[in-house]
UniProtKB/TrEMBL annotation:
It comes from the Eukaryota. InterPro entries: Creatin/AminoP/Spt16_N, Creatinase/aminopeptidase-like, Pept_M24, Peptidase_M24B. Signal peptide: none annotated. SUPFAM superfamilies: Creatinase/aminopeptidase, Creatinase/prolidase N-terminal domain. Residues 1-22 are annotated as: Disordered. This is Peptidase M24 domain-containing protein. It comes from Neodothiora populina. It holds the Pfam family Peptidase_M24. Residues 232-461 form the Peptidase M24 domain.
């Protein structure tokens, strides 16, 4: 076995196609162990098939690189300029997705146990050069005194030593922040991150700060992706689509939704993607966009419409894509070929089954067309509402009004669901170059089946948006 194959098996936890079982002592055999070989299960064969297919070409990882330290500093400078334009004195956040965006530290990096009650805050202020007028970020941290050493060890990108304001356990941390960072200033307006917990905001309000919610130019900083971010989003989302494509021809009738989840997850782990979410829904289970409690046991057939909505993490960025498809038709299966060779005729589907299959194909095409029309609206200065409306009109005009039951999409970045949100009521948000969105129209027929297509679109400076999740779906057999 090659070193690469060993790494793949280690990453996926997969066993070889033939597994060896050790047989203990038996009568007449003394204490010597004998080895017998057992054929792999259907799921194991499908998993190996899927891993092999995906690992044939990992082109989508070629341009993905970890975000460099300089970019985190640049992001904070962009934030400072947005604060200055907005007339805000500082931005306050605690470990979470936004902290990760500006300082490369996630909530779990800081607190692997659970979010705790002791405030650890990052404060970014705009610092204006009186000579040039240039605005730079001044970044400080409020931390418990006994944690200051750990804060320094986190490796937060900075120019020089971190500016850490410490507070003892018997002090008021918010008053300490007010006295040490904003001493002598009467009115201090702080914008707080959308993820910050309520008790922290109340603590700031009670100690002389005016707090305002996230919005405007400050929110737009994270919404607008850098070239490095685009490449990471391209890698993780295209890779997830390619993983679904690699797995599809390996699936067989008789498998369950739960088996498909396991196969896809382990396939993605084989290339270094981290698990996030994986929703596999078959037939009427997919009539609820995210399924229900009683999913997992639905058995696949050649006529099953399978909906997979999946997301994984790679180098800190998220995928969120969806495909709806059939497994290979009976004519391509080994069983059917054998029966045909023996002169055994395949069963003719009933009229009802034929009509249902025809409607699945029709709905699949309508949803794809809805996504196509939405894609044309991802232009600078288009409203978020206009993108949703474009997709919804296609579905309504096709006679399926009321079956597209959710918004068209959302922003995506280090977090799978980010602002702005694409719904038909969001007329205020205007799209900007560099914004990235999901476009995920769907049709859901209760008690029958559901279809959704989801890809990632990048708004460009000029011209139509770019799909950065790879090739769009072509047919239910080529998703």
């Amino acid at each position: 076995m090659s070193e690469k194959e060993q790494q793949q098996q280690s990453a996926s936890g997969y066993r070889p196609s033939w597994s060896r079982a050790d047989v203990g002592p038996r009568a007449g055999l003394g204490s010597k162990k004998h080895h017998i070989f057992q054929p792999a299960s259907r799921s194991e064969r499908a998993l190996q098939c899927s891993i092999d297919n995906l690992n044939q070409n990992l082109y989508f990882l070629e341009n993905a690189r970890p975000i460099e330290a300089e970019e985190f500093l640049s992001r904070r400078d962009n934030l400072a300029r947005a604060l200055h334009v907005s007339g805000v004195d500082g931005f306050v956040l605690e470990p979470g997705y936004t902290f990760q965006y500006y300082a490369n530290i996630s909530q779990r990096d800081w607190e692997p146990w659970e979010p705790e009650e002791r405030p650890f805050l990052m404060i970014v202020e705009p610092s204006i050069n009186s000579t040039t007028g240039h605005v730079k970020a001044k970044t400080s941290f409020l931390a418990p005194s006994f944690e200051a050493g750990r804060v320094r060890m986190l490796g937060i990108p900075s120019q020089g030593e971190l500016d850490i304001i410490t507070w003892e356990e018997h002090w008021n941390p918010y008053a300490t922040l007010r006295e040490q960072l904003f001493s002598g200033r009467d009115d201090v307006k702080l914008m707080v991150d959308e993820e910050i917990r309520d008790f922290l905001v109340r603590g700031l309000d009670a100690n002389g700060f005016e707090t305002v919610g996230l919005g405007g130019e400050v929110e737009a900083v994270r919404q607008t992706k850098t070239p490095a971010e685009v490449e990471l989003l391209r890698a993780v989302n295209t890779g997830t689509i390619e993983g679904i494509r690699a797995m599809r021809p390996c699936l067989q009738p008789g498998m369950t939704e739960t088996e498909v989840i396991e196969i896809l997850d382990r396939t993605m782990q084989s290339i270094g993607f981290d698990l996030f979410f994986n929703i596999v829904l078959a037939e009427e289970n997919a009539a609820l966009p995210h399924g229900g409690f009683a999913t997992g046991g639905k058995v696949l057939t050649h006529e099953t419409m399978i909906l997979i909505d999946a997301g994984y993490h790679y180098l800190g960025y998220s995928s969120d894509v969806c495909r709806s498809f059939f497994i290979d038709p009976p004519a391509k299966s080994l069983t059917t070929k054998t029966l045909n060779a023996l002169g055994v005729a395949s069963a003719t589907p009933s009229k009802e089954a034929a009509e249902l299959h025809a409607e699945k194909l029709k709905v699949w095409d309508i949803v794809l067309q809805a996504q196509t029309e939405a894609g044309k609206m991802f232009m600078p200065n288009s409203t978020a509402a206009s993108v949703d409306v474009a997709a919804r009109k296609v579905i309504d005009d096709a006679g399926y009004e009321g079956t597209f039951t959710h918004r068209l999409g959302h922003g995506i970045g280090i977090k799978a669901h980010e602002s702005p949100y694409l719904n038909k009521g969001n007329h205020e948000t205007l799209l900007r170059p560099g914004m990235t969105f999901t476009a995920e129209p769907g049709i859901y027929l209760e008690g029958r089946f559901g279809v959704r297509h989801e890809d990632i679109y990048l708004v460009k400076e000029n011209g139509e948006a770019e799909v950065i999740s790879g090739k769009r779906a072509v047919s239910p057999y080529e998703p």
